[in-house]
Model the fold of this input.
Amino acid sequence: MKLQPLVFGVLIVFSSCKESNISSKEVTRKQDTLFNNKQLVLDDSIPVAFHFDYPVGKPDAIGYYNAQPFGENYHLGDDWNAVTGGNSDLGDPIFAIGNGQVVVAKDYSGGWGNVIVIKHRLKNGAIIESLYAHCRRMMVNRNDIVKKGEQIGTIGNVNGLYKAHLHFEIRDSLNMGIGDGYSSNSEGYLNPTEFIKGHR
Done:
């Protein structure tokens, strides 16, 4: 069966990914064929993730706090900041939350910057995705196999659009594309902190 490419429309970035002056025109997306049939990773190649850790301050987010949790202001992820504030965490390491396979390592520019997406196979066979946005540096490539706690990138600020932080999502609907970051409809998104707490 031939899979059709997804089409992304206008991406609207609100505030927090917090201190942006970016306009919606600056983040208008062109057609993105990232998830077409040639680029999709086969689920059979994804290693099992038996346990999950936090993406910063591994394994327990030591030295970080969740500045904008899932659901606050319709936020579809968690914003992880260093407790030291400002841009003090710029360049700090980002870690894979569990064993998995990289399906996206791409600069989306606009309000997203560098984004990494990893697919994880749970013990029951279900597949989820973790998304790491605003990376200053990406240290993995598409199709790489990663292990829990492996450094995959560093925290960024999208060239000064925001104070440095990690925008982090977990999704149980696959291949949705980059998304909006904020929406009153959270279908397909999981509360990242609650998921990790439940899968230690």
About this structure: The mean pLDDT is 84. The first strand starts at residue 64 and ends at 68. The chain has two helices and ten strands. The beta strands are 64-68, 78-82, 93-95, 100-107, 114-121, 127-138, 145-146, 151-155, 166-171, 189-190.
